[in-house]
Write a structure and sequence with these properties.
The protein is mainly alpha-helical. Helices cover 74% and strands 0% of the residues. It has 4 domains: 3-65, no CATH class; 93-190, no CATH class; 192-282, Serine Threonine Protein Phosphatase 5, Tetratricopeptide repeat, CATH 1.25.40; 301-372. The protein contains 18 helices and no strands. The longest helix has 24 residues, at 146-169. The protein starts with a helix and ends in a 6-residue tail after the last helix. This is XRE family transcriptional regulator.
């Protein structure tokens, strides 16, 4: 007979009475216990010595039977601080073992995931990105010195921004907002101002998608201000283009055109080293597509010319961008009352959006007033 059962019988209580006492003591502590049938199964296993109660139930038994844990025969629980210290030391050792070059190694792995995301979208890249992000976060959490933390923080900023864009594309706006905040915190620790500006500007799209166009524009402008000491031309062009898109969404045609002109003045030429930052891929063809998107927002017929120019220079492996471009073309064709061409581009866009797993682009396409 276990000490737990012996204690109950010393009071002359049935199991039902003992469970009632447990519930009473649990209630005074704000604890909600399982349904009677479930608790009865646990109770029998405890009294028969099959398993021992967890820490919460041990405390309740001690209170109900007015005995110590030792008197009830409970195995002494290892002191929690000692367990935590041991776990923490293990984590410190793992982070140290990763070595100073681990940031560069994880950055290379992230680049491979980024290529997969551009080509096939979130469905193909999501699990790999989550696994990589978790590993980086754990190493960063237990890295001690700034010299070890900064490289890992830089990788986390990049990974979180990519994950945030995937979340936005798949329609999870709350997750997208949170991941971009993570990216910004990591970029600040890494002292990486380009990564910070990039995460802030991408986050503006979350605001745009929930209808806060004014805040989206303000955040895009703040992202430019986050740069200190200049930025690579490709980032400067990208930030101007983001501002132009946000200005167009606010109905500021003059501001949108001005921002696009500033982007065009610094965008790298075709064939130039246009990718000094791995998270931005922008050249004249990409900017033409973007310009067409923005001009379409403000009802400019020149949008069609820019969009077709972008279509001719589009990298066919950029599946999500291709879906967006087809959606822009469909919108532009509708503005010119060319329903057949609009339906054609919309159909092509849906194929690409499904391939990329892009909920965002599918919603854009579904919102188009296409005739049957």
């Amino acid at each position: 007979m276990t000490e737990l059962r012996r204690a109950r019988e010393s009071f002359g209580w049935s199991q039902t009475k003992a469970m009632s006492e447990l519930r009473r003591h649990a209630g005074t502590r704000g604890i909600r216990l399982p349904e009677p049938a479930s608790l009865k199964r646990y109770f029998s296993r405890w009294e028969n010595g099959v398993v021992e109660p967890g820490e919460m139930y041990r405390d309740l038994f001690c209170a109900a039977y007015r005995r110590t844990a030792a008197e009830l025969g409970f195995t002494p629980v290892r002191h929690a601080p000692a367990v935590q210290a041991e776990q923490l030391l293990t984590s410190f050792a793992l982070s140290e073992a990763a070595g100073p070059g681990s940031g560069a190694e994880y950055a290379l792995r992230l680049d491979a995931v980024r290529v997969l995301d551009r080509q096939l979208g979130a469905p193909a890249a999501l699990e790999q990105l989550r696994a990589l992000s978790t590993s980086v976060e754990q190493l960063l959490k237990h890295a001690v010195l700034p010299t070890a933390r900064r490289p890992m923080a830089g990788v986390l900023a990049d990974a979180a921004s990519l994950a945030g864009w995937q979340a936005l594309d798949t329609g999870d706006l709350d997750q997208a907002w949170t991941l971009h905040l993570t990216a910004q915190h990591a970029a600040r620790e890494a002292e990486d101002h380009p990564a910070l500006a990039h995460a802030m500007a991408q986050q503006a799209y979350v605001l745009l998608d929930v209808g806060r166009q004014g805040d989206a524009l303000a955040l895009a402008v703040a992202a430019k201000d986050a740069m200190r000491g200049g930025a690579p031309d490709v980032l400067t062009a990208w930030l101007h283009a983001v501002e132009g898109e946000m200005a167009a969404a606010c109905g500021d045609e003059l501001g949108a055109r001005r921002a696009l002109d500033l982007a065009a003045a610094v965008v790298p030429e075709e064939g130039a080293d246009s990718d000094p930052l791995p998270y931005i891929s922008l050249n004249a063809s990409h900017l033409a597509r973007w310009r067409g998107n923005v001009l379409a927002r403000i009802g400019d017929v020149q949008a069609t010319e820019d969009l077709f120019s972008a279509l001719g220079g589009m990298d066919p492996t950029f599946t999500r961008a291709g879906a967006s471009l087809r959606c822009d073309l469909a919108s532009s064709m509708l503005a010119q009352h060319d329903q057949p061409e609009a339906r054609k581009h919309a159909a092509d866009g849906r194929v690409l959006a499904r391939k990329a797993g892009s909920v965002r682009q599918r919603r854009r396409l579904d919102a188009l007033p296409l005739s049957a």
